[in-house]
Design brief:
Shape: globular
Largest sheet: 9 strands, parallel
Number of domains: 1
CATH class: Alpha Beta
CATH architecture: Alpha-Beta Barrel
Structural class: alpha/beta
Helix content: 40-55%
CATH topology: TIM Barrel
Strand content: 5-15%
Strand order of the largest sheet: 3-2-1-11-8-7-6-5-4
Number of helices: 11
Length: 335
């Protein structure tokens, strides 16, 4: 097998997706198990996400889950992709990440996003509305200040055990996230959507506007994408179908359901088929040589420093096999 000769690391973002008929609690335990497997395979980071009241996603408490993953692993970096800061008070998030860094020094990443609850009822339950997303920039500044000891929003208030600790911060490129990351000198996480050209342009703008900071002296970019590797291109596409279908279902019905087996997916309507095709076009799949070539082009076009892989599928054995094949492209001699 040819090596993926790229000066970039591979990392994992896992949302704790549930499978049809599965207890969500089992999905959370599966994530911890998967983190151990990712560490053995040589992945650099393992991140978890924050979603609330989503039937198909059990990952709702990312810092709690990150703590469990830290206890179950020994080397891999642990983080969030991300904590949705508008849902929380910055001091609480700072204290949570400070505690994680105290427990697992040198292994913690703080990924931050600006999304709020998907529906009005969820936002009411969280106690935060759409307007809170407009405060994201101020919240990030306050949050960072609890680590440096110079936050101005609440004079005399200190983050404990946070103050003085160094936790790398990443901003998800939703809304004005890319601009904020550049202004504050933070790393950028950007998903491969809306075409490779559009992503490359946003990354170039981020790099051009970047102001060095103590956390990141130079721009740093993680490009996120679903990637599936299998014996044939058709089989790899099949691995992507369960999650792609759930995304289409969410867009057309407002609910992201648990993952179904590819054979059990319903026949799509004309509109659903179009949306499904659009979703799959933004994802990378194929045989190992296919994927190696597409990833090489992705890195060449974006100059990504790291790739964050998000793929999930119905059968966890198939999912692990794809991640194993991908790791073998980057580490053909083994880890």
């Amino acid at each position: 097998m040819n090596a993926l000769r790229l000066p970039v690391r591979l990392s994992v973002l896992d949302r704790s997706s549930t499978r049809i008929g599965q207890d969500p609690a089992a999905a959370v335990r599966d994530t911890v198990r998967f983190a151990r497997q990712a560490e053995v395979l040589g992945y650099h980071r393992f991140w978890v996400s924050e979603h609330h009241s989503v039937p198909g996603v059990a990952g709702s408490a990312p810092t709690v889950l990150a703590a469990a993953i830290g206890a179950a692993t020994s080397r891999i970096r642990i983080g969030t992709g991300g904590v949705m800061l508008p849902n929380h008070q910055p001091i609480v998030v700072a204290e949570q990440f400070g505690t994680l860094e105290a427990l697992y020094p040198g292994r913690i990443d703080m990924g931050l996003g600006r999304s709020v609850g998907f529906t009005g009822r969820v936002r009411d339950a969280l106690g935060h509305g759409k307007d809170d997303a407009d405060r994201f920039a101020d919240q990030v500044r306050e949050l960072l200040g609890y680590f440096t000891g110079d936050q101005q929003a609440h004079p005399g208030v200190h983050g404990i055990p946070t103050e003085g600790l160094r936790v790398p911060a990443f901003v998800l490129a939703t809304g004005a996230g890319a601009g904020l990351a550049a202004e504050l000198g933070l790393a950028l996480v950007i998903a491969l959507i809306n075409g490779l050209g559009a992503v490359a342009e946003r990354i170039a703008a981020y790099r051009a506007r970047f102001r060095p900071s103590p956390l990141w002296p130079r721009p740093y970019v993680l490009v996120s994408s679903a990637v599936a590797v299998a014996d044939t291109r058709e089989r790899a596409r099949e691995l992507l179908l369960p999650e792609a279908w759930s995304l289409v279902h969410a867009r057309t019905r407002g609910v992201f359901p648990p993952l179904h087996a590819p054979a059990d997916l319903p026949e799509p309507t004309e509109r659903e088929a179009k949306l499904l095709a659009e979703s799959l076009r933004g994802q990378i799949h194929g045989t190992a040589p296919d994927v190696a070539g597409e990833l090489a082009e992705l890195v060449a076009r974006t100059e990504a420093d790291e790739l964050l892989i998000t793929m999930s599928t119905y059968d966890r054995t198939d999912m692990l096999d794809s991640y194993t094949r991908l790791a073998e492209l980057a580490h053909p001699q083994g880890v």
